[in-house]
Amino acid sequence: AQTGQRAPEARPNLTVSRHWEEILSAQMRPALERAFRPYLRTVNWFSPGAKPIRTVTLQESVAVPLEAARAFLTIWQVDYAGTDTEWYAVPLAFAVGDEAARLRHDEPQRVVAEVTITGFEQPGVLYDALGMHEFDTALLEIIAQRRRLKGMGGNVVAWRGPLLRGVPGTEAIGLESAPLKTRQRHTSVRFDERLVLKLFRRLHWGINPELELGRFLTEQSFPYAPPLAGALEYHRTDGERLALAAVHGWVPKAESGWEYTLQALDRYYERVLSLPAGDNKSPPADKPLIQLVREAFPAEVPELIGTYLESARLLGLRTGELHLALAADGKNPEFAPEPFTTYYQRSLYQTMRNTARHSLQKLRDELPRLPAETQPPARRLLELEPQLLKHFQSLLPLRVSAARIRCHGDYGLGQVLHTGKDFIIVDFEGHPTQSVSERRIKRLVLRDVAGMLCSFYYAADMALTRQIAMGRLAADERHAFAPWTERWRLWVSVAFLKGYFDTLGHSPLLPAADAELQALLDIYLLQRMVAELGNHLVMEQALVKPACEGILQLLQHDTAP
To answer: Cα 484 to chain center, whole Å?
Structure first.
């Protein structure tokens, strides 16, 4: 989940003598960097959390030719107190007159600074160019024509796949561009019903998994991920690279899997609220999750959950097909399955413990500032820290028989699209808090599975919050209504796992024994919830309470989804 757009502050004024491009000169760079710092604080793709910014530095500006002017792809380095450094991409352009007035009034979040050119009465604005049709089209043409743009310390290099070979010039075929609203921390532009261009905002040095997995799946003609049509990278003179943008085939008539699920939950809660008082025809099942997957659904469950039960099963099926596709090339060293070694097992255990300690320390630090209703589960979780850390020790004695492969890496309802009849899997770049080398590690497929089960958990909680906000349920009834939320989570998780396990069958990607499978799923669920808690403390504290409650449930009932 992502917070809304922050209100822009009054923009600083930069003065140049002859032309706006002087802003990017060495002489003006300190003033631009001072102006850029408050701008960053207002955009929703930048989230430093509690880390104090030390410096903001313009590292590169690459000219992008437009019809009658130029824009610039700029790369920024943000240094924090301590050793943390992040990199960001911002395309910059200049506007005056009516267009500048429109940006100030309609899209102030895109304005970086006011610009006064000496001798001109009317000031203009320096602004984020993505979303300007001429710039969007220029980027697509650069990729389609495999052009190379020279910068100060490297080059912007384009790669083109088969889908773009028939697009020699997008202006010639009249593709119209339109910005897309997403919940992700990148910016996307749609070109008619054909293509979508994604500009990565936060950049990571190395081979971007979005491009790597996208090319692999496209070459395999995997039907449930958009084909990768092209990409734009920055290649530094020392050989290091940054992925700047990706172009994919457009998925028509699709909506976010997250939004589709929330709508299904709205209908579920409406059905529950219409039941006669005291109706409790679907008691929660007190069995391990894997055991429930092996059994038939109780007769009343399909009627209670509705059509989303089949949607969850289908999503599990498509997830299984993704993992089989990613494991299909045994000769490619980047994708060939590898064994779950003892060395990897101990490394995974240490990573899980370190993640848990880090998240709980964040929780301890933020505890005095958390809302009153969040503090009881947060305090209880902190009391159970020894039990939580001990839980991860159950990984060590397991003799894990499953193979590791390249996975999605940041899987959940926000990373799938629902077309009305099916699911398409998107956003393969991995978790933004991890380095590129971490994202490219081969892992058990249960990591992705646990990510989707946790996403069901948060969706059910958020949909219940929406019911309260709409006045359909009183806030003080939330606790009494919780069993219905748990039923939805349980049976939707079971349906997803049924589809997933039916697809993989006896694949070496899964443990052969159900006991081992259940133990690993428990561990990965707990690890995902604990990691999400740390992220929510920085990004969106409204989700801290359900995260704490979810972890407490897992500690209380080891097999609860």
So the answer is: 28
The structure tokens listed for 436 are 């590129």
Nearest-5° angle of CA 208, CA 214, CA 220?
145
> Has residue 79 got a pLDDT over 80?
yes
Q: Which residues face 228 on adjacent strands?
A: 248
- Nearest-angstrom CA–CA distance, 298 and 296: 6
Helical segments of 327-445, H only: 342-366, 375-383, 385-392, 436-439
CA 373 to chain centre: 28
Compute the average pLDDT of residues 238-242: 93
Judge whether 120 and 113 are in contact, CB under 8 Å: no
Nearest to 80 by CA among 111, 102, 58, 48: 48
Whats the size of the chain, residue-wise?
561
Residue 390 vs residues 288, 352, 393, 533: alpha-carbon distances, Å? 20, 11, 5, 18
Give the CA dihedral 105, 111, 117, 121, nearest 10 degrees. Answer: 10
Cα 404 from Cα 351, distance rounded (Å): 16
Q: Cβ contacts of residue 341 below 8 Å, gap of 6+? A: none
Binned at pLDDT 50, 70 and 90, residue 180 comes out as confident
**Percent of the chain residues topping a pLDDT of 90:** 75
Q: Is the pTM of this model over 0.70?
A: yes
Torsion from C-alpha of 174, 176, 177, 181, nearest 10 degrees: -150
Q: What contacts 501, CB < 8 A, 6 or more positions away?
A: 293, 316, 320, 510
Classify residue 59 by burial, with Cβ atoms within 10 Å: 0-12, 13-18, 19+. middle
Average pLDDT for 232-248: 95
Confidence of residue 3 (pLDDT cuts 50, 70, 90): very low
* Mean pLDDT, rounded, of the chain: 90
Residue 104 CB neighbours (<10 A): 17
Check residue 298 and report its DSSP letter.
Answer: P
| 3-state DSSP assignment of residue 254 | coil
Instruction: Kindly state the average pLDDT of the residues 231-256.
Output: 94
Tokens linked to 224: 């449930």
- Mean pLDDT calculated for residue range 423-439: 91
Please give the share of the chain, as a percent, with pLDDT higher than 70. 93
Alpha-carbon span 557 to 402, nearest angstrom: 25
* C-alpha distances in Å from residue 250, one per residue of 163, 194, 221, 255, 477: 11, 5, 15, 12, 43
Of 189, 22, 184, 5, the closest CA to residue 108 belongs to 5
Burial of residue 492, with CB atoms counted within 10 A of its CB: 0-12 exposed, 13-18 middle, 19 or more buried: buried
Angstrom distance (rounded) from CA 389 to CA 399: 20
Question: Which positions ≥6 away from 87 have C-beta within 8 Å?
Answer: 59, 75, 76, 77, 78, 202, 203, 204, 205, 242
* Residue 51 pLDDT exceeds 80: no
Q: Regarding beta strands 85-95 and 423-425, do their DSSP bridges make them parallel or antiparallel, or are they unpaired?
A: unpaired
